[in-house]
Request: fold
Amino acid sequence: METIDFPRPKLHLFVCINDRTGMPSNQTPSCGPRIKAEDVKKVKEWIRAQGLTSQVYCTKAQCLGFCNAEGSVAVLYPKCRFVKGIQNAEDLKKLIAEELENI
Ligand code: FES
Reply:
C-alpha cells in the first residue's frame, strides 16, 4: 500500500443513495427513492460550477446506518456530521454551502 499525496479538500460529503424499493421483503426505509446517483451528479456539476472542485468532494455511498422515513442521509467530514431529512439535490447544495461557512 502507498499513501496518495494530494491537496486535502476542506469538506467531503458522502451521500447515501441506497435504495431498497426492489426488496419487498425488507421494509426498512431507504434513502434511494429520494436521492439517486443522478442527484449526486448534479451536485458534483454544481461544485464544479462554483469553482470548489479542489475544496469539496462529494461521493455516493450505500447505507450509512441511519435509515429513516423522513429523508436521505449524508455525512460531512472532517466534522463527521450526520444529517438526515435530505429531499433533493438542492438540499445537498444548501448543506455544502452551510458547512463551508462553518469550517
Ligand atoms: S439507507 Fe440510507 S442510511 Fe440506510
Residues 37-49 form the longest helix (13 residues). The mean pLDDT is 96. The domain at 11-101 is CATH 3.40.30.10 (Glutaredoxin).
